[in-house]
Amino acid sequence: MSRHLRLGVNIDHVATIRNARGGRHPDPVRAALLAAEAGADGITAHLREDRRHIIDSDIERLVAEIPLPLNLEMAATDEMLAIALRHKPHAACIVPEKRTEVTTEGGLDAAGGFDHLTRFVGELGAAGIRVSLFVDPEPAQLDAARALGAPVVELHTGAYCEAETWQERETELSRILHAAAHAEAIGLECHAGHGLSFDTVGPVAAIPTIVELNIGHFLVGEAVFGGLAAAIREMRTLMDKARPRGGR
Ligand SMILES: CC(=O)[C@@H](O)[C@H](O)COP(=O)(O)O
Ligand SMILES: NCC(=O)COP(=O)(O)O
């Protein structure tokens, strides 16, 4: 029997749209509640050091208000560690961060950053937070995650999703496939995510040793199309309620 594949919905880019105007709309917590109703198994939010999308109060409200496990994505900094230990999300995924990047460009160097990461994995784990490391699909990185004592890895699927040719995509998919098999062989729970879309999700979802996918940017973008008609109908209804049609 195949394992249930969990969907973690990443709501970062609802906050990106909110922050474009600096107000409260659209509210990422409301998006998380909607995701729960729509069948998501978890919510993922990345509190970046520069707070370009999710902000501290979002994390506070997500922990308090959502009925699903929260996966907090965070850089390995003392500030983020303190925030995670204060809020105690279900899970924390340690990701690399570059201030100038548009989005997370690559995986964490768990092997090269071993000494730095040891304390973060240890303190988060000791607080009962399930730690994952966001890594490229490289066996050496998985071995380092295992040696660090992280129970989970999330494989960065960006290179697969961005591949420009069929051949390149197959090569990237096979890296993910092998890494996911290696994760199982060495006793790591395996997640995957970044850049997944309707076009790219199938082959990754079919890999039996991956148990969770985290997907955000595409879903938020797609909602502009799939969800806009419903939003317009609701707007028309409210307008008609406030000023019934048929008048002058
Ligand atoms: C680590 C990761 O893949 C997610 O955090 C996702 O990329 C959304 O955040 P950014 O777009 O800010 O990288
Ligand atoms: N860790 C990946 C994630 O949370 C979602 O990435 P994306 O779908 O927003 O690119």
UniProtKB/TrEMBL annotation:
Annotated pathway: Cofactor biosynthesis; pyridoxine 5'-phosphate biosynthesis; pyridoxine 5'-phosphate from D-erythrose 4-phosphate: step 5/5
Q: Does the keyword Secreted apply?
A: no
Query: What does the entry list as the binding residues for 3-amino-2-oxopropyl phosphate?
Result: N10, R21, G195, G216, H217
What is the enzyme's class at the highest EC level?
transferase
Kindly name one Pfam family recorded for this protein. Answer: PdxJ
Active-site residues, record numbering mapped to chain: H46 (proton acceptor), E73 (proton acceptor), H194 (proton donor)
Keywords associated with the record: Cytoplasm, Plasmid, Pyridoxine biosynthesis, Transferase
Q: Where in the cell is it found?
A: Cytoplasm
| Site positions per UniProt: Transition state stabilizer | E154
Q: Which GO terms describe its cellular component?
A: cytosol
Task: List, alphabetically, the HAMAP family matched.
Answer: PdxJ
Query: What is the documented function of this protein?
Result: Catalyzes the complicated ring closure reaction between the two acyclic compounds 1-deoxy-D-xylulose-5-phosphate (DXP) and 3-amino-2-oxopropyl phosphate (1-amino-acetone-3-phosphate or AAP) to form pyridoxine 5'-phosphate (PNP) and inorganic phosphate.
The entry's protein name is: Pyridoxine 5'-phosphate synthase
Q: Which organism is it from?
A: Azospirillum thermophilum
